[in-house]
Amino acid sequence: MQFGRSYEEFEVGATYKHWPGKTVTEYDDHLFCLLTMNHHPLHLDVHYAEETTQFGKNVVVGNYVYSILLGMSVPDISGKAIANLEIESLRHVAPTFHGDTLYGETTVLDKWESTSKDDRGVVHVETIGYNQDGKVVCIFRRKVMVPKQNYLEARGGEQPGRPVPQPDKNWSGPAPS
């Protein structure tokens, strides 16, 4: 399975559909809120959400929705990234609720070679996230610095830093071919 792409593998206009989706549970949302110290009752207090909001139920905290979508995109977009340079825009366009399943896809808007180093480039992408009904809930654009093939080759290829299993008393080594 591919994990990220080199600069040469990105094509302007290409869309990558991230798989699998992620069903957001109440536990996920509450844990994220508590870990990030976001104690807004819209996310944590069912009674508050039912009685005082237009939604009538808890809304999943937006930064968690964004984080899920960003994470979903890693195998297709930034798995080989040198750096995430910028989040240009982030819009939450509809609420996500407990029990919704999120899906995402990313389109390559543009790409250009680095002006300071010839072994990398920048890819400008837009990711949309939508629920099980196809309703778009989040849209963000970002710029990612990605390596060119020569950068990867100089650092160990597709899986740099991966160790080689060493024979010992528990494993005698690969079977003869």
TrEMBL record:
Residues 153-177 are annotated as: Disordered. It comes from Nocardioides aquiterrae. PANTHER family: BETA-METHYLMALYL-COA DEHYDRATASE, MONOAMINE OXIDASE-RELATED. CDD domains: FkbR2 (cd03451). It comes from the Bacteria. Pfam families: MC_hydratase. This is MaoC family dehydratase. SUPFAM superfamilies: Thioesterase/thiol ester dehydrase-isomerase.
